[in-house]
Specification:
This protein has helices at about 1-15, 20-30, 35-50, 60-80, 85-105, 110-120, 120-130, 135-140, 145, 160-180, 180-200, 205-230. The chain has about 230 residues and is an all-alpha fold. It has two domains: about 1-120, no CATH class; about 120-230, no CATH class. Helix 7 (about 120-130) runs antiparallel to helix 12 (about 205-230). The relative contact order is 0.08. This is DUF3307 domain-containing protein.
Amino acid sequence: MMLFTKLLLAHLLGDFLFQPTKWVVHKEANKMASKYLYLHILIHFGLTMLLLWDIKLWWWAVIIALSHYMIDLSKIYANSYFKNKTIPFFIDQVLHLIVLYCCAFNSDIIGHTVGLIQEINWPLVTAVVFASYPSSIIMAKLLEGMSDRIELDHKSLPNAGKYIGIIERLFVLIFIILGRWEAIGLLITAKSVFRFNDLKESNSRKLTEYILIGTLLSFGLAILTGLIYLGVR
C-alpha cells in the first residue's frame, strides 16, 4: 500500500501542483506539438523516481511516464468530442489511477483486487447512494405541490439546490457515523446564516416555509439513513 501511496503522491504533484494552467491551454491548442506535454511527462518521471527512491524500479517510472503520455494525448484529441469537459478529465484521472494501481500491486493484482471487493462495506455504499440522488428525487416528489407556488429565482445556478442538498446529507451521514451529532447542529446553523439574506430580501413567507420544510426533510432523510446504517452494520 505504501508503494501505491507514493505513486499517487507523485501523480498528484505532477498533474496538479506542477502543471500550470498555461501548460494545459498550450497542450490543448498544440496537441502533440506542445513542448509542455513532454515537459509534463518528464516531470512525472522525475517525481516518480524521486518518491520511489530506488534505481531498480526505474522501469516502473518509465511505464508510468509512457502510459501517462498516451492517456494525456488521447484526452487532448478526445476533448473536442465532449460538450462537458469534466467527462474526459475524470476519465483521464481514472485511467491514470488504474495504471498506478496495476504497477503498485503487479505481483498479485487479481488477489489484491478480489480482497478489496470483499472488504467493501455494502451497507455504507447503499447509505451513501440513497443520501444522494434518490433522496433528492424523493424530496422533489414530496415538495412538488409546494414548489409550484413559489416564484423561481432565475438568477440561481442550475441544479444548485439539488447539489447543496446532496452535499449536506452526505455531511450529516458522515457526522452520524462518526458519532458527532453536535456537528449537525453546526451545519444547520451555517446553512441558516447563508440563507438569511435571501429570505430577508425576498420577504416571502411561502419561500421561508418552503426552504424550512425542504431543509428539515433533507436532514431528516439523512439522519434516518444514518440511524438505519448504524443499526444494520
